[in-house]
Amino acid sequence: MEIINIRSDTQTLPSAGMLDAILHAQLGDDTYGEDPTVKEFEKLAAEMVGMEAALLVLSGNMGNLTALMAHGNPGDEVILDPDSHIFYYEVGGLANIAGLMPMPVPSHQGMIDPEELAGKIRKPNLHYPECRLLCLENTHNRSGGRVVPLQLHNELCQVAREHGLAVHLDGARIFNAAAAAGVRASDFTENVDSIQVCLTKGLGCPLGSFVAGSKEFIGKVDRARKRLGGGMRQAGVIAAAGIYALQNNVERLREDHQRARRLAEMINGLPGLSVDMETVESNMVYIDHSESGMSTSELTSRLKESGVIVSTRPPHHIRMCTNLHHDDGTIEEVVDRVKKVLCKEEVLA
Ligand SMILES: Cc1ncc(COP(=O)(O)O)c(C=O)c1O
Question: Residues 134, 230: one domain?
Answer without folding.
Answer: yes
